[in-house]
Protein: Gamma-interferon-inducible lysosomal thiol reductase
Amino acid sequence: MYLVLCIIFSVFAYSAQETVKVSVFYESLCPASQEFIQTQFYPVYQKLGPEALTVKLFPYSQVKVKKSELNIKCQHGEEECFANKIQACALGLNDSNENSINFVGCIMSTDEPQKKSFNKKCARKNKVSWTDIKACINSDQGDTFIYEIYNTTKALTPKLNWVPHIRFNDVFNRTAEQAARENLLHTVCEKYETKKPDGCDEAHPISTEEEEDDF
Structure:
């Protein structure tokens, strides 16, 4: 009986792993956004996994509504709008699940995430339907996902003035964001109030430097 109780308790304790929510607002062709996702966000996501991290990614585009039509513009041009829409469709169609996060991590590993050929490879690799994404970006559905991200971004308090913009558990803290740019693993691991996930054993603090794209 004692052994059975111990096993049950162990299973329960494992399933109750505390999670930290990380929200990243970014532009797909912004060099600072690319660097953060390549060197900080995606390696940390791979290390800690969806069991310990709840992730929300927001590829940001500016949107204006005129006569019920959406006018979408991006700081780095039409290619960025296209790349943002691909990622917005992948995330929206798959409810930001693990496969779609891995898809974004894959395509943001290049400095040219707007290239269709690379996107298709990342879709196959991460079991995300490129057929569904293609249908999304060529229809009103893609614009709808972009508009939803825009509205979420505009509702932020304090407002978004640069990218990448990083929030933990839906709260913005400038000091935490600056630290996350240089050492996301340590910053995230400091947020766990109970048992830290195994990947946090490798977390060590380092100094930070600020780099951002201002609006």
Q: What stands out?
A: The domain at 20-214 is CATH 3.40.30.10 (Glutaredoxin). DSSP finds eight helices and seven strands in the chain.
